[in-house]
Amino acid sequence: MTQSKFVQLGDFNGRVVVGNIVHRVLDDVYIDFGMKFNAVCKAPATDGHKYTIGSKVLIRLFNPELSERFLGSKHDLTLLEADASLIKLIGVPGQKRRREVEKNENQK
């Protein structure tokens, strides 16, 4: 069991990871960070429009799978989400390509 890659990752609480925005509903952004479930975070009030599908973001992960045993239930229930908080935007779609074009134009 200790040979498992998952176990070798250790404790998730507070781990900072990079993810991609894969879906957006109003102020909620769904972030794929490479595990079983996406993290759902609120886009910030300022510059929230920059958080578009395909953008790279930095998140602080607390729990890769939210589950809870509710009162009167004999089974755990999963919310199909990871618990995380959004730290910052680190890249937007097409940003690298725009930089290359600007660099080539400046060399002329």
Describe the overall structure.
- β2 and β3 form a beta hairpin.
- It contains two helices and seven strands.
- The chain has helices at residues 5-8, 95-107; strands at residues 15-25, 28-32, 39-42, 56-63, 67-69, 76-78, 83-91.
- The protein has one domain (8-107): Nucleic acid-binding proteins (OB fold (Dihydrolipoamide Acetyltransferase, E2P)), CATH 2.40.50.140.
- Strands 3-2-1-4-7 form a five-stranded antiparallel sheet, with no helix packed on it. The protein has a two-stranded antiparallel sheet with strand order 5-6.
- 16% of the residues lie in helices and 40% in strands.
- It has 108 residues and is of the alpha+beta class.
- One of its GO terms (cellular component) is mitochondrial small ribosomal subunit.
- InterPro entries: Ribosomal_bS1m (IPR019375).
- Pfam families: MRP-S35 (PF10246).
